[in-house]
């Protein structure tokens, strides 16, 4: 069996969109044989709250691949309750707009305990990955704490989670920053996985606050430029609108239009100092293919809506084929 039939795949991923795409990648690879995939997951959303360490994107991927995620809310555990959260609110602890589910808190307590015992973030993620058969190796982008801060137009700054969940991205952002990231290193295994990959896929996650921090970890861009794997991105924009979340506000803040070709240009062609070889566009955006090709990035058109596992797997298969093309 050739590597293009059973490729070693690396996926750069954020939380909710990233997990849905990873479910598709796992399914598509299962249909080709044993999956060999590594997810490099954003940790820019992480935060300390009520004495515990939260890793929203890591947990979204963990719960989704583990089959225990809340598919309605899009985050947290299915069937969770909020008894501890009510108690925290009664104490005036934590954030009143931010819910910590009871089962979810179990994850945060386990993680925090292991971190306090001296384990690295990579080791903690490895332990978390043992409970359910995930089928995909999960790596954090870095072991360093580089939580995203949002600098506001009107002055001041706040943690990304406060801006996102409390203010629903309504406060005009001037910039997104990850303090300390210039001194951070890729987590062990990240650079090696990219170097050994046959295909690197960029999930249709938020380009600014999900994929952006991964690419900002020193060494990751260089690894992507150097790998012999094809790097294929999936547009998070369909028909000129963001698929989910408030990614358009983030894109506007960094001067990128909410358009599939503009996001491709933001990532750039690998041949031109960027990170992409190919870019999957939605059928609704097929008219932008020439513009993407003009960037030196090979445009491929595919259905991008991941409404169910079958569609996610078809999208992942299209991304794998784009790497072969
Ligand atoms: N999102 C919300 O909109 N409201 C919440 O109360 C909330 C709690 C929460 C707790 C743990 C966790 O891992 C994620 C949580 N999220 C919540 C989701 C999260 O804020 C964001 O959607 C992502 O970080 C953005 O990718």
Short note summarizing the structure:
Helices cover 38% and strands 18% of the residues. By secondary structure, the chain is an alpha/beta fold. Helix 4 packs across helix 5.
Ligands, deduplicated: ligand FO1
C-alpha termini separation:
18 Å
Radius of gyration: 19 Å
Query: How many helical elements?
Result: 13
What shape does the CA trace take?
Answer: globular
* The CATH C-level class name of one domain: Alpha Beta
> Looking at this structure, what is the CATH superfamily of one domain?
CofD-like domains
Compute the average pLDDT.
96
Give the low-pLDDT segments.
Answer: none
Count of individual beta strands: 14
CATH fold label of one domain? Rossmann fold
Structural class: alpha/beta
Helix content: 25-40%
Order of helices and strands: EHEEEHHHHEEEHEHEHHEEEHHEHEH
Give the amount of beta strand, in percent. Answer: 15-25%
Structure notes:
This protein is an alpha/beta fold. The chain has a domain at 9-45 and 142-146 and 179-322: CofD-like domains (Rossmann fold, 3-Layer(aba) Sandwich). The protein is built from 13 helices and 14 strands. The chain has helices at 16-32, 56-66, 83-91, 102-116, 121-128, 160-166, 190-196, 211-216, 220-226, 247-253, 260-267, 289-293, 309-324; strands spanning 8-13, 36-41, 47-49, 52-54, 137-140, 149-152, 157-159, 173-177, 199-202, 230-234, 237-238, 241-242, 278-282, 298-302. The protein has a 7-stranded parallel β-sheet with strand order 5-2-1-9-10-13-14, sandwiched between helices. The chain is globular and about 55 Å long. The protein starts with 7 loop residues before the first strand and ends with a helix. It binds ligand FO1.
